[in-house]
Design brief:
Elements lengths: L13 H59 L6
């Protein structure tokens, strides 16, 4: 919409339109790069999640064993 501070579309120069198009291309390239970075980060998180699963299971088993040993070695009457 044309108004104060907003030129009519017909009054835009070719260089102004080119500048706007260049800005759009640059912003889309930034978004593409960000999407690629986020995808790589998601892959890293997935790998970490996969690696930590067995460690969590081992830690739970170890904790259960420690609790069993603690009960076994308690002096009578405690």
């Amino acid at each position: 919409m044309a108004g104060p501070g907003h030129p009519w579309p017909g009054s835009l120069t070719a260089s102004q339109v080119k500048a706007a198009l260049d800005d759009i291309v640059a912003r889309r390239a930034q978004l593409q790069a960000l999407q690629e970075q986020l995808a790589a980060f998601d892959e890293q998180l997935a790998a970490l999640q996969t690696a930590l699963g067995p460690l969590h299971e081992w830690a739970k088993a170890w904790s259960g064993m420690e609790q069993g040993l603690t009960r076994f070695w308690q002096p009578p009457g405690q």
